[in-house]
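thread: overnight batch results

M.L. [08:02]
morning all. the overnight job finished for the chain we discussed friday. pasting input first so we're all looking at the same thing
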Amino acid sequence: MGSLLITDFKLDQMLLVDGVLKLGDLDDINNIESDCQDTNCGILQQNCKKKICAIENTELDIQCVNNKCIGFNAKFNLFKFNHHVFTRVLHNPPANVSFEVKNIQDRLNALNITATELYTSLLAIQYT
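M.L. [08:03]
and the structure it wrote out:
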């Protein structure tokens, strides 16, 4: 089983308990990875279809296996968390970490980061 997909992600579902951010609403969670999408191969290759995995027209660097986007749930959760939380929390960072925060934001916006990489990056700037 891969990551759980949080289908109804909202900021008001997040709780801060003893300094730890927690998810307070678990009724819209499942473990079903998204189906792959058909797309054209390119202008020079007519009548060619390929399977991709994407979120809002951003193609993801994950595999399509048996028509399922393996790793989609983790990417979708990062996408939603970025949209609802990080854009607010990481807005206007202190000058001494602004370059690192911008790098994190760019990677989140491109969905080119894993949860582990995000965690490591945030820890690194926490002690700067």
